[in-house]
Design goal:
two-stranded antiparallel sheet
Length: 229
């Protein structure tokens, strides 16, 4: 619903609640094969998939400002998502508590041939499962293996499911467009931009064995040419 309107500005507030009574997920508790040899074992330890329940709720506020050649759009979202698998309640990997989007656009010049666009996005960290510890793992490859002198592989033990959070994600993008009107039906458009202007190191993932951090895209420039006729 429209909560408030002032000159050139619209403010909108929305809330939501979703109840998921049945979700299908991979069974992380599986230990045994699902066959006649282990028929006496609980289904939770045999089945490939399990049923879960979940809830998603929250709200967002949108502010739009539009005056002459200036347009500004701001959205803040606050949300919670959780699942229950019959054993524990946890946050799925896409649960994000805070999310902000700010977009600004300004056009100027003769026939508004210049356009400047700016976008900033912020998101609080996604859940992930931490390593609880490391241990040497020996995997035999044949009868003739010498386990005394064989090399072991480093493996890890996981902690509580999605109990930790990654660092926050944010980036700033900028773009400039220039239009050239050639005759009545020809328009030549040049554009240049940059993604992640301040070159923030957003984490993509972390190697669980080496602890090496892999980051997302660094500052990335782009150039384009468009001809409409």
């Amino acid at each position: 619903m429209d909560f408030l309107q002032i000159p050139h500005t619209t403010i909108n507030i929305e809330g939501y609640f979703k109840n998921f009574s049945q979700l299908i997920s991979l069974n992380r508790y599986k230990i045994y094969d699902d066959n006649e040899f282990y028929a006496d074992k609980p289904e939770l330890q045999r089945k490939d998939y399990i049923f879960e329940k979940g809830k998603a709720y929250g709200g967002d506020i949108t502010i739009k400002f539009e005056y002459k050649n200036l347009y500004v759009w701001f959205v803040y979202s606050l949300g919670w998502t959780n699942r229950y698998d019959g054993v524990l309640t946890y946050s799925p990997h896409y649960d994000r508590r805070h999310n902000i989007n700010l977009v600004a656009s300004y056009a100027c010049g003769k026939r508004q041939s210049w356009q400047f666009d700016l976008r900033w996005n912020f998101g609080s960290g996604f859940p992930y499962t931490q390593n609880q510890g490391y241990y040497p793992q020996y995997i035999p490859t044949g009868i003739g293996d010498d386990y005394v002198t064989a090399n072991e592989n480093l493996d890890f033990i996981l902690g509580d499911l999605n109990a930790a959070r990654l660092p926050a994600y944010h980036r700033l993008d900028f773009n400039i467009k220039k239009r050239f009107f050639i005759g009545e039906h020809n328009i030549l458009e040049l554009n240049a931009g940059a993604t992640n202007i301040y070159n923030y190191k957003n984490i993509f993932y972390i190697n669980r064995i080496s602890n090496q951090i892999i980051y997302q895209l660094p500052i990335l420039y782009s150039f384009g040419l468009n001809w409409t006729f």
